[in-house]
Amino acid sequence: MKAIGLRRPLPIDNPESLIDIELPKPVPTGRDLLVEVKAVAVNPVDYKARGRAQPTEGTPHILGYDAAGIVAEAGPDVTLFRPGDKVFYAGSIKRPGTNSQFHLVDERIVGPMPASLDFATAAGLPLTTLTAWEALFDRLDIDRSGRHDGRRLLIIAGAGGVGSIAIQLAKRLARLTVIATASRPSSVDWCRKLGADHVIDHSRDMGAQLRDLGLPAPDYILCLSDTVTYFPVMAGLIAPQGRICAVVSASKPLEMQLLMDKSASFHWEYMFARSAHQTADMIEQHRLLREVSVLIDKGVLAPTATEVLKPINAANLRAAHASLESGRTIGKIVLAGW
After folding, report:
1. Which residues pair with 2 in a beta bridge?
2. Same domain as 147, residue 264
3. Among the three residues 225, 244, 268, which one is the final residue of a domain in this structure?
4. Among residues 220, 247, 268, which one ends one of the domains?
5. Residue 193 within any structural domain of the chain
6. Sequence-separated (6 or more) residues with CB below 8 Å from residue 211
7. Which one of 3, 41, 215, 240 has the lowest number of neighbouring Cβ atoms within 10 Å?
8. Can you give the pTM of this predicted structure?
9. Chain centre distance of CA 60
10. What does the alpha-carbon distance between residue 129 and residue 126 come to, in Å, rounded to a whole number?
């Protein structure tokens, strides 16, 4: 089967950083599905993993997490899907990635693909939706049925992949007042289109901008950018007894003492935690994606793919990584077709 891999970490402008390769088609066992991959998407975790990958000698490392495709075969213990089903999922950090024609994935982290979407559009959703959903509804404990209607959520870096779906979940399900940050006219427009009530510039004094808008301190903050840079700012902005969640790992210890006098709390969201640790509630990601699929088909949530590259090959994947590393992408970049 065709695949895209790397033999050693290299800068993305090096043509050897990601290469086209051929690999044997894997065989499903246990609860694994063998998925014929039709489309994949890129996320910051892809280029971060590329930079630290240490492939075994002679064995290329396969990256990629988001995928949409068709179940080709099912392991003997599979109960949720059957061959021919269209699925979408975000994979596991502990296993070979989705940048291959056929991919093994545990059925408990796979969802039925929205019937209203094609493979390319669907592939842009799983990782960012799982991250945003878990961050808002599990880590920040926001009620997704609207019980916290009107409370204020600040999303730092609202125009990226996670921010694009977090704005929708917070506004359309939880009915919060959503304040997103963006620094360019195009990203400001994108955040407003997705439902943000207010958009402020994270490169300027955010506290002053909130005061100028007459907005009280946010009850929740979701940080999707550099946690170390924004932690002191978030500690100053958060309301007493508020909650902060971050998804980007910290390069140095955070000064938690800054939160004490407000009794504010800090939470990490790591979408791969359930699959990496094989948690007892791992199947919640299947249920979550199944619910999201219904919300997409009902028009409650909108897909966030903004660019589709064809076909899936090393050259296009290198271009997608380069765009993502620039830090200026809006929504999701997807690759479709082999």
Report:
1. 22
2. yes
3. 268
4. 268
5. yes
6. none
7. 240
8. 0.97
9. 25
10. 5
